[in-house]
Amino acid sequence: MQPDKKTGLHFNTFKLQVFLVLLLACVSVAALMTGQLRIHPYEVVKIILSGIFHIEKTWSPTLESVLFDVRLPRLIAGILVGAGLSVSGASFQGLFRNPLVSPHILGVSAGAGLGAALAILFFSKIYIVQLFSFLFGLLAVLMTYSLSRVYRTTPVLMLVLSGMIVGALFSAGTSLLKYIADPVNQMPSIVFWMLGSLNNASNKDLIIAGPVMLGGIVVLLLIRWRINLLAMGEEEARSLGVETGRIRAVIIFCATVISASAVSISGIIGWIGLVIPHIGRILVGPDNKKLLPVVTLIGAIYLVIVDTIARTAIESEIPIGVLTAIAGAPIFAYLLRKNRSGW
Amino acid sequence: MKIKITACTVIFIIFFMPFASEAAAKRDSFRTITDMTGRKVEIPVSLSRVALFGGPTGQIAYILGARKQLCAVTVAIRGSDLILAFDPSIRELPAPRSTSGHVNIEELLAANPQLVIAGTFDGTIVEKKTNIPVAYTESNMDHGIDLLKREIRFYADVFQKQSRADKYIDYLDKTISFIKSRTKDIPRSKRKVIFNGYGPNHLVTLGGDTFMHERIETAGCVDAASTINSTGIQEGLHSGLIEISMEKVLGWNPDILVIDTGDPDEIYKNPKWKNIRAVQDKKVYKQPVGVFIWDRPTAEAAVLHPLWLAKTVYPERFKDINLVKEVQRFYKEIMGFNLSREMAEAVIAGRLGIRFVGNSGKK
Question: B248 at the A interface (CB within 8 A)?
């Protein structure tokens, strides 16, 4: 668990971060240039700049709409969701001292799934679906957290167990709703939603969810060195005078708010929060101080690339949850083989 | 001794008589039909207990006048507002099949059907678990008018109601050729582009390889999604439905947008849709719902959906057509339902629902 100098590739962290920021910039520009509609790159630059500077509008309002209402919000949502899920995953893996943990461990996605299914069943308006999935995600984690406090000796284990219980309960609720849902309209809507997609991301969602997610990410990055202390183990940390309970609560709160917002925008996107932290560890080692910023960047880059494929590869949308696994699994397997790094 | 032999004979006769007579009866009162997949199925001549599993085709019984021969139906038909208004007794029938792949075998056995008519998926389940004969329908989402006619004829053969089938097919052919006669001279460049945007995000649609393409063409419109292929895809349980990106819709810039969830006002207010021509021209429509929703390959929708579409898109070409009256006429002549004016208007406005369990009339 201690930062171990022997494992990983240990790139120079600063250089790596600069490289990743540049890569994210390139990927973002490329994402804005590509899409179902062919728009000349020069035109794309002009339209984007017209949002800031005064440029005479020589293009149709449709193109403007494509960029400002479709591609830009999708790009920003991709960056935020990718970064958010990855950094929450890395923090949770540190917190639970377990490499198999993902941000969904405490039941947030199961809760969000039930919320979304309920909203599709009874309101079928997209913003209520988003609101419900956010609230039910929070509710599920709140239940997990209160349940884990019933038994106070080993909080980490209890959290995981409570997460499984609450997750199972909410998933069963979702299955029940799917069973009784109208198989004609609502059922496909629920299934599409569960598969995850950034297709519904809009500027309106981002104005609300964006600052929340950004706030969560910043807090996790600021307290990242404390996660190292937690990783040492409960007793050791406490003997150093660290209030483990409070840090744990802060991490859980931030990660939950991030994942619940992410799920409300994009549905359930698995795999990223589990695997991106491992890729980060292979690159810079397990020290959370170095790890978290790198993981944040890689997560953002990864989801932007995958979403660009999801919306351009064929004429219809490919569910992003399917792609994240198909694209990520081989990369992960390769890296694991190449570097026998401890987690 | 003698008594013993007599007793034995009597016992023998008592035991075996019923079997002999039953075997004889079996030879006489059974006939062989060919189902839609080409399989031969033995069914009783006097067919009085049939279980219908094919989702949208539940209405077939009314079209053929074979309602009394049903012993089990689907949840969808049992919950249809329109059916319940004219045949409340349908509520009493069991519905062993809820959604595709979910068949309650005990409920089916209790209904004691002589024949189950189902799609491949549900039919296989029934055949594997029971001895009830199964006739398979061929139902898929590229289900054009030709396949629909084949299906009607198949059901007519099962229920022995050929004349009713002819009546429906005649009605269908006449309606389609009438619509085409009014729309065929619209030049390609003047035809309106239509996009069906389903689901809460209005981005789920039926591809150009589905039955919908044929209906849009009949109505003299251009199918925005004609390059999308979706029949093979089983995402979200319904083959034929597929999600596309908003960018695609912006690119097609449809003149007409048809939705099945929410209401047009909600789209008029959504900034994401403001540059779509259909939204600027206030040409967003909610899709009608009759016995079943009209964006499925059902018998009612095959007749009425293209007519509604044509009248909605080109009102000047169909001035003499009163849609309410046409809806009333179809249900009266074909299904024997006397729809009131209000009810026909509710069908056209998409206000009717299909009540599934736990979803009391919400739509």
Answer: yes
Give me the sheet containing B284-286, strands edge to edge: B222-223, B193-197, B256-259, B284-286
* Cα–Cα distance for residue pair B61/B66, rounded to 1 Å: 5
Average pLDDT, chain B: 85
As assigned by CATH, the class of the B165-349 domain is: alpha beta
Q: Do A199 and B246 touch (CB under 8 A)?
A: yes
Cα atoms in the 13 Å half-sphere on the side-chain side of B312: 26
Q: What are the CA-CA distances from residue B54 to residues B100, B169, B236 (Å)?
A: 9, 19, 18
B29-161 and B165-349 have identical folds: yes
Residue B17 has pLDDT above 60, yes or no: no
Please give the helix or strand (H or E) that residue A291 lies within, else none: helix A288-312
How far is CA B193 from each of CA A185, B109, B256, B313, rounded to the nearest angstrom? 24, 49, 6, 10
The verdict on a CB contact (< 8 Å) between A182 and B356 is yes
Contact B99 A187 (CB under 8 A): yes
Distance CA B285, CA A76 (A): 32
What token pair was written down for B277? 């021509």
Domain boundaries, chain B: 29-161, 165-349
Best A60, A185, A264 member to test B by mutation, with max B CBs in 10 Å, is A185
Structural domain boundaries of chain A? 13-24+70-338
Contact call for residues B64 and B58 (beta carbons, < 8 A) = no
Distance between CA atoms of residues B167 and B333, nearest Å: 9
Strand order in the sheet with B50-52: B70-72, B50-52, B115-118, B134-136
**Cα distances (Å, whole numbers) of residue A8 to A86, A139, A277, B13, B283:** 19, 38, 13, 89, 60
How much is the average pLDDT of B250-277?
91
> How many CB atoms within 10 Å of residue A25?
11
* Interfacial B residues in 187-226 facing A (CB < 8 Å): 198-201, 203-204, 207
CATH value of A13-24+70-338 in 2.40.50.320, 3.40.50.300, 1.10.3470.10, 3.20.20.70: 1.10.3470.10
How many Cβ contacts (< 8 angstroms) between chains A and B? 139
Out of A66, A177, A185, name the one closest to residue B261 (CB).
A185
Q: pTM for the complete prediction?
A: 0.81
From A62, A197, A319, residue closest to B250, measured CB to CB = A62
CATH number for the B29-161 domain, one of 3.40.50.150, 3.10.20.310, 1.20.1250.20, 3.40.50.1980? 3.40.50.1980
Helix (H, G, I), strand (E, B) or coil at A275: helix
pLDDT tens digits, residue range A319-332?
887 888 777 778 77
Cβ–Cβ contact B231 with A under 8 A: no
Please count the CA atoms within 13 angstroms of the CA of B75 that sit on its side-chain side.
21
| Least confidently predicted of A98-112, B214-228, B344-358 | B344-358
Chain A contact for B76, CB < 8 A?
Answer: yes
